[in-house]
Amino acid sequence: MASGAASGLGAVRPRAPGPASASGPSPEQVLAGFNRLRQEQRGLAGKGAELEQEVAEHGLVIDTLAEVDPSRKCYRMVGGVLVERTVKEVLPALENNRQQLVKLIETLNAQIQSKGRELTEYREKYNIRLMNEEDRSTRENDSSGRTGGTGVLVS
């Protein structure tokens, strides 16, 4: 997942002086690709949090219905339509839905980790550094001492 400190982006500044490589992407293109990957990762994380909330809600309903008479009437929203059922009919469906949500969350977490690895590889490939990773003096010394590479600094 993306860290809170890394969420603010600023100007793109090449870390080393010199002309941009004609065959490689410009710093702006590198930043756009980096931001796209981070946004995809955030989207996956947001969906995961939403599904975890649904699992918690399913758990509350299941716990409540478990203590109720199985022949008691209850109402369930199915495809935007409120239908009348019994607790005995609804409880197994809720438990099944909850299990499916848990499996989906596991899949989503694997995708988030994969996207994190992809993001790390992209950062390493284009030498991207976040402003909060280095203190200002180290960053200034590093950029003035290097004469090669096409790093991008993201604040």
Key terms for this structure?
three-stranded mixed beta sheet, disordered N terminus, 13% strand, rod-shaped, two-stranded antiparallel ribbon, 155 residues, alpha+beta
What report would you give on this structure?
- By secondary structure, the chain is of the alpha+beta class.
- The protein contains 3 helices and 5 strands; from the N terminus they run βαββαβαβ.
- The strands form 2 sheets. It has a 3-stranded mixed sheet with strand order 1-5-4. Strands 2-3 form a two-stranded antiparallel sheet.
- The longest helix has 40 residues, at 27-66.
- The protein is rod-shaped.
Distance between the termini: 18 Å
State the helix count.
3
Specify the overall morphology: rod-shaped
* Arithmetic mean of pLDDT: 83
Helix content: 55-70%
Largest sheet: 3 strands, mixed
- What is the topology, as strand order, of the major beta sheet? 1-5-4
List low-confidence stretches: 1-20
Oligomer kind: single chain
Give the helices and strands as they follow along the chain.
EHEEHEHE
Write down the Rg: 25 Å
SS class? alpha+beta
Strand content: 5-15%
Quantity of strands, as a count: 5
Task: Write a short abstract of this structure.
This protein is an alpha+beta fold and 155 residues long. The chain has helices at residues 27-66, 87-125, 136-145, and strands at 13-14, 73-78, 81-86, 128-130, 152-154. The strands form two sheets. It has a three-stranded mixed sheet with strand order 1-5-4. It has a two-stranded antiparallel ribbon with strand order 2-3.
